[in-house]
Design goal:
Length: 405
């Protein structure tokens, strides 16, 4: 929107606010009618095209009832990320490219209002005493907020958008994120209840890939998901329980960490437990669950390779309890069956880079056995099978002697 049209929007917004009866609940239709009346009156002295009138009506309504200039950006399906560095600096990611958009909030106060509107919808709190918060929108989009004094110049808001329709395995195949052979192999592993851990850097597609993997879970199973901010969009699961951690309040009380949710989930008769992301001490609880008969679990973590992910798991377990390293490694080796490494390539595409089986402990170290690896030569890319599955016990339990791999 141009600055002239932006000024028009703010003036009409104030006129509508002055006419609204704030002592009662005002319906959307009533607000829309007030906006239209004000636009008609305004256009008598400020000529507007039909397109400008429609844009004004939408933007004034969004500023009063929705998320102001954010609303249009959230509704654009080709935008995958929104980055707000202050009321006047808004950037988006489209098709992997960062672009500045010609939109801005009317003031720092309006941006602050939108931020409070977002956090209050999920019963979170953000203020100068607690200036950092992770939360989500109603559609599962991931939101990170940083306020002053941590954000030196302006309040910062970042939104990782989620697609309106979950990306399934067919869509990942169409995007070239993996091959049909690899997808079939992963489906076999999921149905056979292997414990799978997804590893990758920021923006590598871990949550998207995890969502797609849930397609292979038999519909009769009971699945429990545990997340910091609920964003998983599981596909085809009827018996689904979703749990979300809760931060402490202003008095430092009422916190419900992921660790407590993992322990609680064990009492809810789960067939599978899915932990959206392991970042710290909850890794110990996840591994303990895996080692006490709860197979078929999924989780994700940040690392640059499958080997790095093992090192990070060791560190995260030690954050929970001071255990001998040999005991930590034994717990990881027996609790994780498969590590899938995902990555974002220079051309902005997201690929599955490696599937590695946790072979076991050799000379005090966890040994990985690569099953599939992404290779690119001469402009051509492919997934090469590097080895066969060593631990086949779970396959035999589900498929018998006719195990497909």
């Amino acid at each position: 929107m141009s600055h002239i049209l932006h000024d028009d929007c703010e003036w009409i917004r104030q006129q509508v606010l002055s006419r609204m009866d704030l002592s009662r609940e005002v319906e959307d239709e009533e607000i829309t009618a007030l906006i239209q009346e004000e636009i008609i009156a305004y256009s008598k002295s400020h000529p507007l095209t039909i397109a400008q009138r429609m844009e004004l009506e939408r933007d004034v309504f969004n500023s009063l009832r929705k998320l102001d200039v954010l609303q249009d950006l959230l509704e654009e399906e080709d935008i995958t990320e929104i980055m707000i560095n202050g009321p006047d600096d808004i950037f988006v990611e489209r098709y992997g490219e960062l672009q500045r958009v010609d939109k801005h909030f009317s003031s720092e106060e309006k941006l602050a209002d939108v931020i409070q509107q977002i956090v209050s919808a999920t019963n979170r709190t953000v203020n100068t005493s607690s200036p950092i918060v992770d939360t989500r929108l109603s559609d599962g989009s991931r939101v990170n907020i940083v306020l002053s004094p941590i954000a030196i110049d302006h309040s910062i808001l970042s939104i990782r958008k989620f697609p309106k329709h979950p990306i399934n395995m067919d869509r990942l195949l169409a995007l070239g994120s993996l091959s049909p052979e690899v997808a079939e192999f992963l489906g076999i592993l999921v149905r056979a209840r292997y414990n799978i851990f997804l590893s990758g850097g920021t923006g590598s597609g871990k949550t998207t890939f995890l969502n797609a993997l849930t397609e292979f879970i038999p519909p009769s199973e009971r699945v429990i998901t545990i997340e910091d901010s609920a964003e998983l969009q599981l596909i085809g699961i009827e018996n689904l329980v979703r749990m979300e951690a809760r931060n402490a309040n202003l008095e430092g009380k009422l916190e419900v960490p992921i660790r407590d949710l993992v322990k609680t989930s064990l009492r809810l008769r789960p067939d599978r437990i899915i932990i959206g992301e392991c970042r710290g001490a909850e890794t110990l609880d996840m591994l303990q669950a895996n080692n006490t008969g709860h197979s078929g679990t999924f989780s994700t973590g940040h690392a640059n390779s499958c080997v790095d992910m093992l090192s990070r798991m060791e560190t995260m377990v030690l954050m929970a309890m001071n255990l001998p390293l040999v005991a930590v490694r034994q717990m990881i080796a027996s609790g994780i069956d498969i590590i899938i490494q995902l990555g974002r390539l220079p051309d902005r595409s997201r690929k599955m880079l490696e599937i590695a089986e946790v072979e076991g402990i050799v000379d005090g170290e966890i040994r990985l056995h690569t099953l599939y690896e992404y290779q690119r030569e001469g402009g051509q890319s492919t997934w090469v099978k590097k080895g066969n599955l060593i631990h086949r016990e779970k396959l035999l339990q589900v498929y018998g002697e006719e195990a497909p791999c």
